[in-house]
Design goal:
The protein is built from twelve helices and 19 strands.
Length: 391
Amino acid sequence: MRTTVGIIGAGPAGLLLARLLHNAGIDSVVLESRDRAYVERRQRAGILEQGTADVLRAAGAGQRMDREGLRHDGIELRFDRTRHRVDFPALTGGRSVMVYAQTEVCKDLIALQLREGGPLLFEAEALAVEDAGTDAPRIRFRHEGREDVLECSYVVGCDGFWGVARKAIPAELTQVFERTYPFGWLGILADVPPSHDELVYARHERGFALLSMRSPAVSRLYLQVPDGTDPGAWGDEEIWDELERRFETADDWYLQRGPITQKTVTPMRSYVHEPMRHGRLFLAGDAAHIVPPTGAKGLNLAAGDVVTFARALVHRQETGSPELLDAYSQTCLRRVWQAERFSYDMTTLLHRAPGATAFEDRLQLARLERIASSRAAETDLAEAYTGFPFG
């Protein structure tokens, strides 16, 4: 097999890249190790920045998002039993975010790819990227019980942290930056309407809590828990009681309860691999960087990466200049590090570290009070949350 761009991974990054390339008249092949059903039910992020939503619309993949997604114009910060709303459009010149689950983004892009795009091979396991430093990289993969080779002009690894793409970059050329947090998120899905019409980020002396949603009928909620927590160790009523404590306010707001349909624990870590390019191999999304979920940046960073690559390749095709492709890693990393900084700031602002002192508690409250009382501080949060410009 031969193609211009070999894409490893049919998550939102790989699928969006395939769509962008198709619209630009550039052929690609997508290899995905899992089956279609798994990809379409894989629960991940649910917040799309303004720029990500705009890219999906421009790519022809935004119709159902606009029909069924939930536009949010702000978030609520909760601390010391007080409530403060951050108004995104008023602070950013009209920008907002969209609540639309990654599973739904994948369903939309898969349907488009199978109907209009190039080959999308499920249960096609990438085994290795070979000759990445040359002008003729290859992906060795296994599909339908036999090994095959995909010859490419370019390879884009959208295959996540555990994928094979990053391993093709020589270790002596790389730098890794990471931080592991001593807590995680116990997340639940519940068949109950959300108790607030926007996301609520709560800082409490017992730990962080987040009220989110998947639809007007399904709530998504999170509790800060110690790293390594077994989700099965928490009973349903115990979870609701703890959420109620952490979301408490001085007014008459209350938390609606309902049947819990899923419990998971998400570890918290920050990770950046530099560079994001080696020869004709380009990394995108979790293959190159991971952020804690507090800032809702993971999927959006991946979208920024593939938009940057698609624009650079179109520029190469139209002008003959490799300038933008050569700058891919540097361009993406500027945005990546801003997202890492914001996600770290949000995480340390809202989570109570094990063994935190009274001094550290007061600093957290002072930072939150600054956001609530300063338009400049509030604007900085709103601009970062709604999204940094794509490079």
